[in-house]
Design a protein that fits this description.
Chain B: This is DUF1416 domain-containing protein. Chain B: It comes from Lipingzhangella rawalii. Chain B: InterPro entries: DUF1416. The complex is a heterodimer of chains A (279) and B (103). With 279 residues, chain A is of the alpha/beta class. Helix content of chain A is 29%, strand content 13%. In chain A, strand 8, helix 9 and strand 9 form a beta-alpha-beta unit. Chain B has a single domain, classed as Immunoglobulin-like. In chain B, strands 1, 2, 5 and 8 form a 4-stranded mixed beta sheet that branches. Chain B has a 4-stranded antiparallel beta sheet with strand order 4-3-6-7, with no helix packed on it. Chain B starts with 24 loop residues before the first strand and ends with a strand. In chain B, strand 1 and strand 2 form a beta hairpin.
């Protein structure tokens, strides 16, 4: 699989704005961004409203995903190009989520909304009308999703990659700094985890670093790329960004995303937690 | 004020109740161009090692806001037309640090 099969640049998107086989999907947590301006033809998916079960802490089920994509006018054979704010955190999360339910051709717009805006490219407010489809999803692909027990068992046996900021890793902050610091969980990290912040996989404009730079980044931080790897952050979106770098760009099959992440692990009773620098 | 369940930064940053920092160490600012608030600029909070801690895109008011911890931090602002600027700030719990950025 080549890089362009999973990651496209803004010029590619502009060249395919009128291609009926390509559908742009903006994914944000803060959907006011889409409402005030988005790439022409893009539909929106709300990270929370659309992708999370409204009652349990889990994803919408297969039927729910089929209903969502059908309503958005997304067909199984469409090329889905995801982009969003926050350096594509939620777009990468949606990418991983689309893969979880087996969508074949998904790609990320490199740099997301940020690079698009910094380049002063066109944003519109018109919401496209698309005919509904009849989407069929696959069962969840458990090879890319790590759950709680597997993560606890991974301590000392698998590579744990904590992609939060260094200040969250050592326990100084409980959340990214653009959020109030009021989480109820314990601070710190999972023992044996290496801290390779998601941001180190990206350039300042939000685009991904080259495969050579990515490989060097993880190997220098002590991650054995031949071992099973589990990436986590606070709620699983920043680690989707790193999962994308490892699984999709570097082509490693042995990488899972732990979407429960620190908001789950840091609230578990009795599990080991480490503070300070990685040991 | 509530963080909700998410991790994303709303445009302009999370709103303060009555403009008070309360138990937070707040760093905020306004980005303007030609004396008008600038939408679509990006403010990034870095620690003193230059490591990323958070990022907010400015909305219609041109504002951004971070919730840091006590100590020294750096703010880097990016905007269209290649604008980039960096500021050193010191955050303190209960205080609001306010920056004016002319992009």
């Amino acid at each position: 699989m080549s890089r362009s099969d999973v990651l496209v640049d803004a010029d590619w998107v502009e060249a395919h704005l009128d291609d009926p086989q390509v559908i742009l999907v903006e994914v944000d947590e803060d959907t006011t961004a889409y409402d005030k301006g988005h790439i022409r033809g893009a539909v929106k998916i709300d990270w929370k409203q659309d992708l999370q079960d409204p009652v349990r802490r889990d994803f919408i089920d297969k039927t729910g995903f089929e209903r969502l994509l059908s309503a958005r006018g997304i067909a199984n054979d469409h090329t889905v190009v995801l982009y969003g704010g926050n350096n594509n955190w939620f777009a990468a999360y949606a990418y991983w989520y689309f893969k979880l339910y087996g969508h074949q051709d998904v790609r990320l717009l490199d740099g997301g909304r940020k690079k698009w805006e910094l380049d002063s490219r066109e944003l519109v407010t018109d919401v496209p009308e698309r005919a509904a489809t009849s989407y069929t999803a696959s069962e969840q692909d458990s090879s890319i999703r790590a759950l709680r027990d597997e993560v606890v068992d991974a301590i000392g046996t698998k590579d744990l990659v904590d992609v939060r900021s260094p200040d969250e890793f050592v326990g100084k902050l409980l959340a990214p700094a653009h959020l109030p610091q009021e989480s109820a969980q314990r601070a710190g990290h999972i023992p044996t985890a290496r801290n390779i912040p998601w941001s180190q996989a990206a350039n300042e404009d939000g685009t991904f670093k080259s495969n050579e730079e990515l490989r060097e980044l993880y190997e220098e931080a002590g991650v054995d790329l031949n071992k099973d790897i589990i990436a986590y952050c606070r709620i699983g979106e920043r680690s989707s960004h790193t999962w994308f770098a490892l699984h999709e760009l570097l082509g490693l099959d042995n990488v899972k995303n732990y979407d429960g992440s620190w908001t789950e692990y840091g609230s578990l009773v009795g599990v080991p937690v480490e503070l300070g620098e990685a040991k | 004020m509530s963080a909700g369940n998410g991790c994303g930064a709303p445009e302009g940053g999370v709103t303060l109740t009555d403009g008070q920092a309360e138990d937070q160490a707040v760093i905020q600012g306004t980005v303007t161009r030609d004396a008008q608030p600038l939408r679509g600029a990006y403010a990034r909070l870095l620690n003193t090692d230059g490591e990323f801690a958070g990022e907010v895109a400015t909305g219609d008011e041109g504002t951004f806001r971070f919730f840091a911890a006590d100590g020294d931090w750096r703010i880097r602002v990016l905007a269209s037309q290649g604008f980039s600027a960096e500021y050193e700030v010191t955050a303190q719990t209960g205080k609001v640090v306010d920056l004016q950025v002319h992009a």
